């Protein structure tokens, strides 16, 4: 083990750690605002990566159909809700817009070959598909039960995850896929070659984290989300819609997930079920942050990336064991330092 | 297209639930595949090959009952029990995965139902025991493939090898078989690294291999997971020979690997290089017919996994007429006779090679069941 190997392993750990950090932040965001543990977060990653790959490989992009189905379900639920409330069915403009948007995107991705459109356009289309998917998931599965016990929300999350993995197999097939790197070459720092994709990952992650910071500290919507996270009832009393907060946090989580997927797709082969294990590591990061602190969660996720990289080098067969065992001392320490665990319900 | 497919599959799902058992079938064969879950890439071509299996053998109609185990060994056991106790099948083809197969051997043996397993690991038929007597394996044993690779290594003057394999029974068995063979030929195994199919980075494994600087690297992984180790090694600047197992023998390997897998050597069945094999090869016509029929039905070329199920059908086609002399389908006597008849199959050409089964060898391939193949100019090419 020499200096160069340490640097290469560190770079590898940093790339993965940055992705885990992004996922840890979005899991944390969704949890604090809605008390939902977003298990399907990984599906955003995998679906984004596979959609990019499908566009580049010239195979049919089918994600639009899922979005269309969910938008239609949301519309039906909206109509049903107004019926129950007012005694007569009415169509809200928002749900019509949603269905129209999903239909337009489905037509676009089915008919227009995006293979030569360039990475930027493909990434934009992918995000245009995934972000509303997050919204629709919240509307269809979580909004009707938003006030339920966190345990119920967790069980629904697991169900949504399992269904999405199955739908993923149907949409993308069992084979893995990979996309073109954004740019070739890299940056030489002394004797270490920094991979260009690593630079992309780190740069985009830093940018996103900075953007989130500004959003939460400076903008009214960000502050409203924070208020909803601190005290749900209080936020509602001062006029912050919990529905809006839930939808906004899901849209942000989907945005972060799709960006992670787009970033990681050129580095590795992604399968329809790869998302879970990636987001699980982000989740471990969020746990290290006690599901409360953003900076600690991000640092924890970076630590997971490094631990993974180095433990793979020393004992590749036991890598997952080592990474997930890391969570134990953290949990012990947290439970010892917080006497009399308070139940928030 | 996709919406249509979805509608059709939903419709068939509903129909299959309602009409699982037509009355007049005489020989019943259960098929268990993993067409969903982590090893769906193996199970899907297998499931798609079921409609191509013979439906009339020796004057008897054959009914196939297909179940999905979702890649879960527990579900495989449940599927086997259902087939044996409720459907009273005469034979079972499947399951798709090695761990799934290991778990059901005892149930097949207790019920006395011959099981034709299209799985990779030789552990289902070796070492032969009283229970494994009921298992037949329609894939090449790992050691047959390993022998071909080792012979090529020896000829190329390779003295040391690094190994990267998946952390599952496939990788386990390859490490064992290859390690033994290499020791016999005086080839040193310098490093052995493992990974999971879903791993997002193999940098560390690659570095470990690089730092031991072997003459060649063998990658043992099923399906498209065999690509990432090789491209990682390439990106890290490794330019030695890279060997792959028959697990990499699928079209996606070339698509995912691109230029970085040029020059790879692997040993696999002739299906990848059908047009380059001489017409005199006993398997050529059967394999071409299978590929054509599969393509017509599904619109894509089959991975070799599907051919393993098709071969099981060919074995049954040879054995059932013999077994019919031993008893009526549906009886224990028939199943016993079927087992004995399968054991007697000699010189049966199939899609993967030629079967010569004996009481001790329930896989029965010889060197006609493997070809040395390399990647040249982005295409699979037969090594002459």
UniProtKB/TrEMBL annotation, chain A:
- Taxonomy, superkingdom: Bacteria
Keyword Transmembrane attached: yes
Topology relative to the membrane: Multi-pass membrane protein
Gene Ontology CC, one term: plasma membrane
Membrane: is it a keyword of this entry? yes
Compartment(s) where it occurs, according to its Swiss-Prot or TrEMBL record: Cell membrane
Q: Which PANTHER family match?
A: ABC TRANSPORTER PERMEASE PROTEIN, BRANCHED-CHAIN AMINO ACID TRANSPORT SYSTEM PERMEASE PROTEIN LIVH
Q: What is this protein called?
A: Branched-chain amino acid ABC transporter permease
Which species does this protein come from?
Answer: Azospirillum lipoferum
């Amino acid at each position: 083990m020499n200096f160069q190997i340490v640097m290469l392993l560190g770079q590898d750990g940093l790339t993965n750690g940055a992705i885990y950090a992004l996922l840890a932040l979005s899991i944390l965001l969704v949890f604090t605002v809605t008390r939902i543990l977003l298990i399907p977060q990984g599906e955003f990653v995998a679906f984004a990566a596979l959609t990019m790959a499908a566009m580049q490989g010239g195979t049919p992009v089918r994600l639009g159909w899922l979005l269309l189905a969910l938008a239609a379900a949301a519309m039906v639920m909206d109509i049903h809700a107004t019926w129950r409330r007012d005694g007569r069915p009415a169509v809200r403009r928002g749900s019509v817009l949603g269905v129209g948007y999903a239909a337009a995107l489905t037509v676009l991705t089915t008919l227009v070959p995006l293979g030569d459109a360039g990475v930027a356009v493909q990434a934009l289309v992918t995000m245009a598909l995934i972000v509303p998917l997050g919204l629709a998931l919240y509307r269809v599965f979580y909004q009707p039960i938003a006030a339920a016990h966190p345990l119920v929300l967790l069980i629904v999350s697991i169900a949504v995850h399992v269904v999405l993995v199955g739908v993923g197999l149907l949409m993308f097939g069992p084979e893995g896929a990979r996309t073109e790197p954004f740019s070739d070459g890299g940056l030489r720092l002394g004797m270490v070659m920094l991979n260009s994709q690593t630079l992309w990952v780190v740069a985009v992650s830093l940018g996103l984290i900075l953007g989130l910071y500004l959003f939460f500290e400076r903008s009214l919507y960000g502050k409203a989300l924070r208020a909803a996270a601190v005290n749900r009832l209080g936020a509602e009393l001062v006029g912050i819609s919990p529905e809006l907060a839930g939808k906004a946090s899901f849209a942000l989580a989907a945005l972060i997930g799709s960006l992670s997927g787009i970033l990681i797709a050129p580095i590795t082969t992604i399968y329809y079920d790869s998302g879970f294990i990636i987001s699980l590591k982000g989740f471990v990061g969020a746990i290290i942050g006690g599901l409360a602190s953003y900076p600690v969660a991000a640092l924890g996720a970076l630590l997971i990336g490094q631990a993974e990289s180095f433990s793979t080098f020393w004992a590749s067969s036991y890598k997952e064991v080592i990474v997930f065992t890391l969570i134990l001392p953290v949990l012990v320490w947290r439970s010892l330092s917080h006497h009399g665990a308070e139940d928030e319900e | 297209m996709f919406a249509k497919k979805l509608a059709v599959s939903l419709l068939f799902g509903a129909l299959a639930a309602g009409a699982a058992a037509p009355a007049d079938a005489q020989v019943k064969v259960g098929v268990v595949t993993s067409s969903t879950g982590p090893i769906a890439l193996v199970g899907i071509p297998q499931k798609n090959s079921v409609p191509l299996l013979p439906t009339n053998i020796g004057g008897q109609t054959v009914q196939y009952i297909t179940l999905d185990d979702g890649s879960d060994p527990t579900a495989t056991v449940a599927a086997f029990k259902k087939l044996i106790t409720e459907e009273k099948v005469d034979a079972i083809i499947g399951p798709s995965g090695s761990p799934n197969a290991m778990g059901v051997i005892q149930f097949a043996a207790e019920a006395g139902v011959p099981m034709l397993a299209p799985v990779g690991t030789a552990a289902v038929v070796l070492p032969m025991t009283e229970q494994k007597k009921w298992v037949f394996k329609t894939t090449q044993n790992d050691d047959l493939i390993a022998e071909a690779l080792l012979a090529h290594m020896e000829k190329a003057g390779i003295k040391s090898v690094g190994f990267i394999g998946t952390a599952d029974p496939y990788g386990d068995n390859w490490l064992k078989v290859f390690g033994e063979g290499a020791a016999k030929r005086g080839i040193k195994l310098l490093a052995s690294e493992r990974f999971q199919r879903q791993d997002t980075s193999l940098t560390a494994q690659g570095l470990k291999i690089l730092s031991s600087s072997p003459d060649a690297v063998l990658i043992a992984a099923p399906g498209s997971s065999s690509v990432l180790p090789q491209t990682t090694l390439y990106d890290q600047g490794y330019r030695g020979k890279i060997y792959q197992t028959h697990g990499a023998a699928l079209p996606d390997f070339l698509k995912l690997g691109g230029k970085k897998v040029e020059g790879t050597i692997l040993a696999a069945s002739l299906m990848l290089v059908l047009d380059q094999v001489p017409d005199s090869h006993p398997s050529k016509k059967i394999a071409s017919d299978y590929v054509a029929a599969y393509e017509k039905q599904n619109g894509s070329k089959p991975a070799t996994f599907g051919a393993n199920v098709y071969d099981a059908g060919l074995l049954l086609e040879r054995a059932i007429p013999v077994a019919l002399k031993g008893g009526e389908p549906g009886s224990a006597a028939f199943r016993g006779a079927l087992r004995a008849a399968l054991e007697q199959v000699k010189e049966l050409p199939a899609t993967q090679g030629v079967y010569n089964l004996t009481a001790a060898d329930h896989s029965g391939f010889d060197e006609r069941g493997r070809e040395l193949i390399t990647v040249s100019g982005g295409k699979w090419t037969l090594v002459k």
